[in-house]
Write a structure and sequence with these properties.
Strand content: under 5%
Structural class: mainly alpha
Largest sheet: none
Radius of gyration: 16 Å
Number of strands: 0
Number of helices: 6
Length: 122
């Protein structure tokens, strides 16, 4: 369970973008998106601890969509960046995609395998 939380919280970290494309509204919106994402992760953990599989499945999909949004944001930043900033963003995008794949691989365990869920709660 701790590993899952670390992965999800890592995904919620602010993603770098080119200073040319950032607006004040985008910068101000980033913390709210992270807070909302972290709240969803906490709620998902709560559902798993309660054994509420149907609610966990619904929220799992919502968390996945949030992760996809973060990936799209990074991709957009890559498109407008150049040089070393672009390389950093590409590395970040690769890590985000790997974490997303790991998170997706947990879904069968979350929904069908209660023993795996129980081991994550300890």
């Amino acid at each position: 369970m701790r590993f899952l939380l670390v992965i999800l919280i890592y995904c919620a970290q602010p993603f770098g973008s080119s200073g040319q494309t950032d607006t004040i509204a985008e910068i101000n919106a980033q913390p709210d998106q992270r807070v909302i994402f972290q709240s969803k992760v906490r709620q998902l953990t709560s559902y798993l601890n309660e054994g509420n599989e149907s609610a966990a499945n619904i929220l799992f999909k919502d968390v996945s969509k949030s992760m996809e949004t973060f990936i799209k944001t990074t991709q957009a930043a890559i498109d407008s960046a150049d040089g070393s900033e672009k390389r950093k963003l590409k590395d970040k995008l690769d890590r985000q995609r790997q974490l997303m794949a790991q998170f997706q691989s947990y879904q069968p365990n979350l929904i069908r395998n209660r023993q795996s869920i129980d081991t994550w709660t300890h």
